[in-house]
Design goal:
The radius of gyration is 16 Å and the shape is globular. It folds into 2 domains: 82 residues, no CATH class; 89 residues, no CATH class. α2 runs antiparallel to α4 and α4 runs antiparallel to α5. The chain has 9 helices and no strands. By secondary structure, the chain is mainly alpha-helical. It is 68% helix and 0% strand.
Length: 191
């Protein structure tokens, strides 16, 4: 799970760092190609890719959707299609992790938790009020995700903080004194 979270953070960093969109797309393309096994140089030289390869093995291509989802956020206008592509990419990556880790949980529960976290993070980081409103309107649907198994407690924490951020109008997940307490509570009891 830690490797998946690190990959997600690395892709977020590529997208968030300013500069030419083409350069950011090229960096994302490297990750996509490495996951498909089509890079010229061995992707194993990148420590995170080596870690992901050791976990996903022949199924590493299942993470390509996560890269595509982050790339969708590079569009000039953040429309509903780009938002959904981002959410679906993150959801597919987590579904793949759940399968590989052999965690018994309803796919709908995981999908809703990941969706809540993804949309909350996006709402907290968009600049445009209209884009934030668009993200929040999508987040209002299926924001209840139930209880995740203990092995997915980090996802439960992220989704719980995400739900809190959505209810607060798209505020950052760790904003305010109550955020840390909320994270501790979810970490301790799972909800």
């Amino acid at each position: 799970m830690q490797a998946l979270l690190k990959l997600d953070a690395r892709l977020a960093q590529v997208v968030a760092n300013g500069g030419e969109v083409l350069i950011r797309q090229m960096r994302l393309a490297w990750w996509r190609d490495a996951m498909r096994g089509s890079t010229i140089s061995q992707p194993i030289k990148e420590p995170l890719m080596a870690c992901l390869s050791s976990i996903w093995k022949d199924d590493l291509h299942e993470l390509v959707g996560l890269v595509d989802g982050w790339e969708a956020l590079l569009e000039e206008a953040l429309d509903e299609l780009a938002i959904e592509k981002f959410v679906l990419g993150r959801t597919a990556a987590w579904a793949s992790f759940v399968s590989i880790a052999k965690i018994t949980v309803s796919p709908t529960t995981v999908e809703r938790a990941v969706r809540t976290w993804a949309l909350a993070g996006l709402a907290a980081n968009v600049v445009s009020r209209s884009e934030r409103d668009r993200v929040l309107s999508l987040a209002a649907v299926h924001s209840d995700f139930g209880i995740l198994p203990r092995r997915l407690r980090p996802l439960a924490i992220l989704a719980g903080l995400g739900r809190r951020g959505i209810r607060r109008g798209g505020r950052p997940l760790m904003e305010g004194r109550g955020a840390a307490l909320r994270a501790l509570k979810i970490g301790a009891i799972g909800r």
